[in-house]
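Problem 12. The chain below contains 123 residues. Write out its predicted structure in token notation.
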Amino acid sequence: MLKGTCLCKDISFETSAKPQGPSMCHCGQCRKQSGGVWSSAFVNESDLTITGEVRWFDSSETAKRGSCPRCGSFLFWKAHDEDTISFALGAVDGPTGLTLSKHIFVAEKGDYYDIADDVPQKD
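Solution.
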């Protein structure tokens, strides 16, 4: 069971499903919202229990982002036409037991850092 919370603990989430696709997103939206790179994994939406009031923001025509209205923690990413939901690995309490599988949107990464691992990269 993976469990996590936002910074103020008003929102919590948990899943007993095996998270898929652990990744680091370097897109401009994730950089602006998180202040850097955003790490996440996804599960079927029906496998994630969220407690508390999430503020959803339609960040594009294809997806929305969920955060805590009190502390601002960026916790969730959800494509409008998919039945999966991504959650912030940094918000998980304790070890995740996951291994990073990819870096995504690396063409948009900041110029102030290098990706210095052997994990696959996708533009």
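Discussion. The mean pLDDT is 97. Students who got a different answer should revisit the alignment rule from Section 12.3.
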